[in-house]
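User: New here, any thoughts?
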Amino acid sequence: MLLFDQLNKGDRPLRMVAWGIAVGLFILLGGLWRVQVMSAGKYREKQEVQSFRTVRVPAMRGKILDRQGLELVGNSPRYRLSLYLDELRPQFQDEYRRQRTNLLIAKKLDVTPASEGFFDWVAAKFRKEKRGSGLTVADIDFLNRSARYVVASNAIVAIYTRMNGSTNVRFYAEEQFHNYWLTKRALPMPVIEECTPAQIASITEQGWSVPGARLELVPVRSYPNGKVAVHLVGHLRRDDDYDEDEGRFDYRQRDYVGAIGLERAYDQELRGLAGAKSIMVNSLGYRHQHGEQELAEPQAGMNLVTTLDLDLQKAVEKSLDMVSGDERGAVVVMDVNNGDILALASAPAFDPTEFIDGVSWHRWTNVLMAEPARPMFNRATYGEYAPGSTFKILHSLALLEDGVDPAALHTVAADPSRPGRGAYFLGRRKIEDTAPPGSYDFRRAFIRSSNSYFIDHGLRLGWEKLLSMGHRFGLGEDTGIRINEVKDGDFPTMDVVQRRGWTAGNLANVSIGQEITLTPVQLAVAVSAVANGGKVFWPRVVDRIEPGDPFAEGEITRIRPGQVRSEIKLARRHFDAVRAAMRDDVSEAEGTGKAARLEGFAVCGKTGTAEIKGNGRKDKVTWFASFGPYEAPRYTVIVMVESGGSGGGTCAPVAKRIYEFLRDRERNPARRLAAR
């Protein structure tokens, strides 16, 4: 009160001080009003924006090309429609208020709007509420969760309606959506993975007003030739695994990793180096509108140039498709002079584009892996089959090396129960022969595929010499093809024979290609060695690895062709005798491979049929193993068909169509196979 008494007495200096204090307080209050009221929204946003998140950005995968640079696997643009959840926050809040009001009404509680600002919060602290009013933490969590799902679902329904009920619109279950919001709310949520041209036109022309919906351009793996060579090139699968070598990221954009074939074997080279960007997020985890920055640019993967010839590959698969019925088989075409795989096919095939968006468990188990078709099964490199009479090619070399006289005659006994057919009697056991009874020298026994001849000579030859010849050609061993879908077959050693307790009966079976297994690629390597005079090559499927941009820096890695695994030292006359017998098997009227005879191109081959028994199943595997032309061998063609009629009737015609393609192309210099 003393201060006011002095002011009332007219103390001028004190009055000036008082007015100065009053003005200062007024200015302070004005500043506080501007900061706390006028600029509250701006500062609130700045307070919310408080952290960064790193995002892994996958690189563009390299292409897989044929030997002439034609594209087997590449990349193509895809338009994806996504929802950005951060742009739906106003709708989330409105829906929350609506549901909160309804819930409070249902509970007959206080319907006072939920507080938002600082002053509302302070007022709420002093506001007297009715006892028992308000919501529990569980109620608030439920309302927030429900509001977000309702708003997002309504947005997707709006998109679905504008797309005229298109089936490619993705709907999210509530739990699925909630998990996405918890872990990836800063990233776009896909609604249409691949927009059709009509959908793209609708989105761009109509100027959509669906909140948060954006059209994005993303690269995806493309297969311009469909299923061609799919078992060798392989396919991709989603990759959501954490890679320690790449560092820890808060988010990972959708990426893929090679699942099978060359995509898997050369995944590191094809996928390149991932990049990184940072996004600024607020305290709620939403992306800030102006908070994105690139930290490291992705580096595209290397291109893989294979030894395949695309035109030949298409011709091979077309020829195999002409087998009547539901064909299950494989074809391998190899260059006999350097081991290059020129074509490799397995049937039935599968569509690699299915795996871009994922395959359902039902389709995987009931279609892709279902017996007996098994479209995912690479029969050319992973299928292990009894070679049947095609093994007689190597058996013949073992006999000739052991000193068997090609002109010496062997008498095939008649089969009492099958008029006009021969048989071999081993003790009480009868082994049927497709050749008729009579006298056979080596050449006639080969082209008539006489079981009796080869069993009789095989028993005299013995285990060690017969198995040794097979191992010299690489049977039962890794071929060296750098893909994971490779088997070694079952071609035993002497130790295995002794451990299994095999007897003369087993030796008789092995002599005609039973009780042993190999893959079509292994047989291609062996036949190529016979054709070229004894060089067993490591088969090659990749020629080089090179940068996708020819002007970019990067080292070209070349895989040297013609790498010899071993060289079989046999007298030249023995190779000549077997090659001549294979020629006659096709050219002679009584040859089992005459269906492969081709004018102007001397095909040399050997048919084979092997029986499969076990697990209550009885089936046949049919073969045609060949090379050509006889005068200057260049190609090996192996055809295998499951459940075929016979090697000569089922497989030889397939090989003929392949050789027709090769012959016709060689007559046209512009289409000749590019040399490597």
Summary: Residues 118-133 have pLDDT under 50 and may be disordered. Residues 12-38 form the longest helix (27 residues). The chain has two domains: 53-305, 310-369+377-669. Residues 53-305 form a domain with the Penicillin-binding protein 2a (Domain 2) fold (CATH 3.90.1310.10).
